[in-house]
Design goal:
Length: about 240
Amino acid sequence: MSSAFFLQPHVFLCQTKRHWVILDVDRDKYLCVDRHQFDSLGPWVHGWEKTAAEAVNGTSTPPPEALALADKLLSLKILRDHASGAKDARATDYALPTRAADLDIPPSTHKSSLAQALPFFLSCAKANRQLRDQRFEAVVTSVKERKRRNQDSAPAFDLERARSLTAVFDSLRWYYPRPYLCLFDSLALVHFLARFGLYPDWVFGVQADPFEAHCWVQAGDVVLNDTLERVLAFIPIMNV
């Protein structure tokens, strides 16, 4: 059975207990679809992980409810009807952290933290400008491309240095005049760490009942800028 539909490259998926959640990076939108309805369409979407024979019961045409969903997703440019540039329709596979970074700074290091003030403010200003003036897709692409350009030449990720710099960022954050928001704070931290040759993951997660989206910065199994309890409430849908 050949695929009839293909997932757009700017779309990411994750599965919750009762829903499939779709992140459309191009439109900066989330969409929740009933799990059973999306599962009924899945076998006709390229790269679907589940066994097609079990899902379609020998039929070669999607059921009416699946076709209705396909029409909607085609109109939203989440699906396409040709394979060029498409990606597999699979849930994002990303491991949640198992520990959180300790951001306590010894009093003796507070003075040295001031030396990082300029990189901190430049990073925050860049994140603020991007989120104000650029499309979300352009911001994500720029972070991804910078990481790709530098990852091969960068030394092994220094988790202790990342923890220390994140603690400095956290201590200076009080002085930047912008409300705390996970999107801004995570992007600014990613920019800040990149100035020191560190390229952790910028992770996006969701929960569906009720719906909530969140993002954080993670290095290996360590969440750098959040609590473990908070992050474990979410299912990863995209990592940059």
